[in-house]
């Protein structure tokens, strides 16, 4: 009653509008705070690779036999023995790149057509009836090997965007892949001979693997090499997460294991024979570790000093399973019915109605003990991280809802401004 | 009313979609006992799909719903807009004189790929680029090193390798052909072959494809043939041929059965095959026995229908009165046979010599297609044709020669009219170039494989709809002059040593000063 009517009306309108804008501003502020929390969690998710090992989700194998000619039958038997083992332990053909520089099974010198044997007396046929060789004959070159590792396309320099190299010949690994690289052939001090014609040096290999690290093409690599002076080949590696082993040290030769009288040549190398006979005792569910394998190395059995290089590998060897590299073990997380209704703890009270997520981001505590040992990264992540992930999920959902009503928000803004303008005009015109 | 319309539309759609992708699959095995005691086995897996990929290349988004036709192959053909495809991977030498003409023409040792593709494609790429992509795609699909079929091996023959399917007359098509004579065939080529079949080598005739006995045979070959047919359909024939030797396996007798030659019987029939037949060509003389009883016997031979037989099935033929098989000198004579050899022992030049034998009563026109790598240069002016000892240049009707340019191979096509009952010899000189040391293969001392020559002809008594026959000669090895591959190392080492010695001596001469050194008097006395 003290103030004139128009001013009262103006005050009323102004207070309503300011209340509205204050409410709006508060929720926006909250959203921006949640956005910041979202960004921080997202950032930590992607940088976790550097700090904690998240474990691998798929396995690849690159098996290379680099020598040709019939008298190098044992190198092809080496590579095929590894191929058989890796397939038996679960890596499918689509994840194996097998490079054989010559044809031993259907060679015209081979008395046993279609078969490659790795022991005297020809017990087990390594070629079998189901085999896919990705690179054969003249295609096994240093260039192709490095292209496979680094994923460089095979497109012509002046040509098309898409390259025509088929998928079966490409290493399509990602940053959660564990790769087993096996090389065999004739080698020497920091080199390996390809087809008696060219060499790959330890520096080339180290640089190729560093390119793989930069392109996030592997989680961990297990590098095994069976040649003369093999340990020198991995001496120049400098990328993280590599475990390497070789058959003989500097100035020492690796020897073949035995000859078969009917095939007429040596059929397997001593180091590979030792490793394969150890792996015969490993199956898909085995908990045997790398340390167990390396403890079986002995000069008396292998006849050369086999070596291991683990300084680039940040997991302890007695916790690294053999099936981490040799097997294609799939990790399955079982979700029970009651989890879908359970609200995950630590969910922040969001201002808007957020429907309960259909899949919980945190599995119930009852399964924690049954969680497989093979994903240490998942176990090592602190619980608060998971809770913040939950809240991140909800605030991301809330933020999305906010974004969805952007149009409504703009309408509110312009509508209220228009209303204010009209009222002012009406008031002033009086 | 609306619901009825919708129901009608749906029914029509379902009908049409069923009709649009109707496929049929049939498998045949033909076993022919040969006069020299061997058995020729030829598997044919034929899939007929009623969607013609070539026809629909403009509508690229049409889905490919295949049940029997292999999707991997279909996607590759669709992506590269290929109308007709012939791929063969063979090992061994087909002996025409002892075994006659094969059922599948492409018996050249190594890999042979030839395709007919239309000028325009759905995504506008050129014919050569699509050829390159196709050979890489097939290399991945069949685990063969077909990526080596680049421009150094690709040719465009004009008078042979005509289309065997029904190509549209409204479009222009191009032929690309390439040989890879050094390609080996082994189990890794058979594994994806079996995976492309509907029954995947688990049942039916494909279960007989056991790699161990088959890859130990005298000749074996894998074939993939795609050809378009009229009325928007496409036929895929996947073949596997082998010439097995029961005389060698049993050390003397030519009796054979599935357990001997394939190592296993047929477990069960393929459920999706509309026809599953085994045809056994019966020998002329009646001293054989065949078990079990065939379903039908006619002039072509005995036929077994797998739907009427019990499993496991083993078919066998035996000659009970024969103690040991007697090899005979006489061999069946073919209407036409051809041979090719290289003569001359020099490392820089040689002579190539063709032998044609025409056993017919009429003259025969043949097209001789020969390709050579760019470093083998033919001299056409040295070509001589001798018929029964007489020089006869007039029987050469036409010649087409593609010069080797930019490391592309040379292609020589000659049309000859071979007189009746004659032996014709055609010879030509060639020069071998010295190629750069990086262009040699890793095993350079072995030599370079010269691809087989294809001799294309049509017999006068053949059916007019039949495609032209082809004979293949052997692959030959050309001994190229190879450099000393250790020379770059030698040059570097020697020149470095010389320079080091020279520099060291000159440096010493210029900078070394001889000075007197004072020593104690007692040291001199002691010395």
Automatic annotation (TrEMBL), chain A:
Record-linked PANTHER family: GPI-ANCHOR TRANSAMIDASE (PTHR48067)
Signal peptide start and end residues: 1-22
Biological classification of the source: Eukaryota, Fungi, Dikarya, Basidiomycota, Agaricomycotina
Active site annotation, chain numbering: 186, 228 (nucleophile)
Biased composition (Basic and acidic residues): 371-383
Keywords: GPI-anchor biosynthesis, Signal
GO cellular component, one term: GPI-anchor transamidase complex
Organism: Tulasnella calospora MUT 4182
UniProt xrefs under InterPro entries: GPI_transamidase, Peptidase_C13
Keyword Glycoprotein on entry: no
Name of the molecule in the record: GPI-anchor transamidase
Region Disordered, residue ranges: 338-394
Gene3D superfamilies tied to this protein: 3.40.50.1460
UniProtKB/TrEMBL annotation, chain B:
Domain of life: Eukaryota
Transmembrane feature ranges: 487-510
Signal sequence segment: 1-21
Keywords: Membrane, Signal, Transmembrane, Transmembrane helix
Single biological process term from Gene Ontology: attachment of GPI anchor to protein
GO annotations of cellular component type: GPI-anchor transamidase complex
Protein name per its UniProtKB record: GPI transamidase component PIG-T
Organism of this sequence: Tulasnella calospora MUT 4182
